[in-house]
Each structure stands twice: as C-alpha cells, then as structure tokens.
Amino acid sequence: MALSPVRLTTSNPSSAGSVRATIFSWVGALVGISCAVGLLWDPAGNDMSSSKTKSKILKGHPSARFEYRVWGEYRTARKLIRKLADSEIREELEDCYLLVDDETFNAKIRDNTLKVKQLIAEDKGFERWVSDKYRSADSTPSPFDVVYEALDLDRLRKEKRFKLTDALKGLDADSGVRVVFVTKQRRRYFIGDLKAEVTDVKIAETGEIVRTLSIEGDDLQELVKLRKKLGLKGEPNTSMAQFIDPEVEPESA
After folding, report:
1. Does any domain span residue 249?
2. CA distance 48 to 141
3. What CA–CA distance (Å, rounded) separates 49 from 41?
C-alpha cells in the first residue's frame, strides 16, 4: 500500500512561495555541481564516504541520536505517546529546507541559521544522525558552504533588519532547484530519556499539510521497545527532508 500524506487542510499555492522556489533555483544549480564531485566532506576536510571518518565523527558527537519517523495519522500511537509522556512542549517553527541528491544530508535554515544533519549509521530500522549549526561558510560542509555564501547568512545573522527572503531577491534564477519552505506546528513529548514528536507540516508552495510522528534518543534498545509499544514496527522510516522532497516518490509500506 502506498504511503500517502495525510491532508488535513488545503489552500491555494502561495505566490510568495512560488517566487521563492524560482529565485532559489540558482542555489540549486550550485548545490548540484558540488554534489556531482561524488565525495562528501566534513569541516575538517575528511571524506564522508569513509567508514573510518563516520566513526570519527560519531565519537566527536556523543549526543548523536537515533531517530524513527513515520508519516500519517497513527491515532493510536499519538494517544499512547500523550499517556506515556512526562511533559509536553508546543511550538510553531518556520524552516527552509535545502534538499540535495545525497539523502545522508538533511539541511535547513531556521532563524537565519544553517543547521546540517548527517546520517552516520542505521540499526534495527533506526537512523542515527549527528547535527551542527554553522555560523560561517568556512566551517560549513560542502555543498552547503556554497549556499551559505550565496545567501550571505553572516550578514543576515548580524543585521536583524535582513531576512532570508531579502537575501533570496539577490539571486539569479536557473533550473533544477529543490528548496522547500515549511511551517511546523509541533508537539514535543518527553518519555523518560527519550523524545517523541507529533508535527503538522505545512508546505508553503502547495498549502498542503502533512502529519509526522517520530521518536528519538540515544538508547537504541529502549527506542526499539517504544516503537513496538506504539505499533510502529515495520512502518517506513522516512526523514523530513526525504518526505517533503518533490522529486522523491513516497515509500511503500
């Protein structure tokens, strides 16, 4: 059975979103060129395709977390999460995702700050990610260093009157971009040392709203137990960036 987004509400496509996508295509071309080299590099200049490098990076990120993310309603799982949770936080977030062909990268801009997640390992159906926020083009891994410079994020972070949309106006148009603006209504739950979230994600370019549920933490065995308790074992684990990418077909359950 094909896994389809749950459509909670719909609206007409945002004209501003369409303009953003067109303007951002120039960045997409640069990202595509960078990815075509075939090697991924961390800020220290290491080949990210190397298992030794991944091990080194993992040791440098003791807070690396396992994540399991599904898409759809999952009403029973949601109710159980609320019952199990020690506490809950609600928040609204505005994100701009920078999508590239390499699915081991998950990058977004929030509050004019670039955050890049890298997939380090997979185990028992869970994906293990490390993440960093970058505040200079020199420290940002390829291909996002190109994007960082193109958007002049240093200037955006230092001068409050500048916003991401203002930076986009100065970019030339080209083809093949995959940039997605989203608004998230997120409920984050804390279950012991584990975290769970239920998030409604509104995609600006289409007005479509999809729902996602995830569990994460650093204790894989406890996560496996929680996944089984929630009835999610065997469901496709699909990252945010992969699911909202217009060029990626939804995975079948």
Report:
1. no
2. 10
3. 8
Residue count of the chain: 253
Q: Which two tokens stand for residue 129?
A: 């990610």
Q: How far apart are CA 79 and CA 72, in angstroms?
A: 14
- The answer to the question of residue 9 being in a domain is no
Range of 200's domain?
15-244
127-158: pLDDT as tens digits: 999 999 988 888 888 777 877 877 777 766 56
What does the alpha-carbon distance between residue 68 and residue 227 come to, in Å, rounded to a whole number? 8
pLDDT digits (tens, 9 = 90+) for 16-54: 444 344 334 434 443 443 443 333 334 344 444 444 444
Residue 135 covered by a domain:
yes
CATH number at residue 164: 2.40.320
Q: Distance (Å, rounded) from C-alpha 217 to C-alpha 128?
A: 9
Is 137 domain-assigned?
yes
What is the rounded distance in angstroms from the CA atom of residue 181 to the CA atom of residue 162? 18
Measured from the Cβ of residue 86, the count of other Cβ atoms closer than 10 Å reads: 8
Q: What is the C-alpha end-to-end distance of the chain, expressed in Å?
A: 6
Distance CA 102, CA 248 (A): 12
Q: Are 100 and 180 in contact (CB under 8 A)?
A: no
- Total number of domains constituting the chain: 1
Assess contact for 35 and 143: CB atoms under 8 A: yes
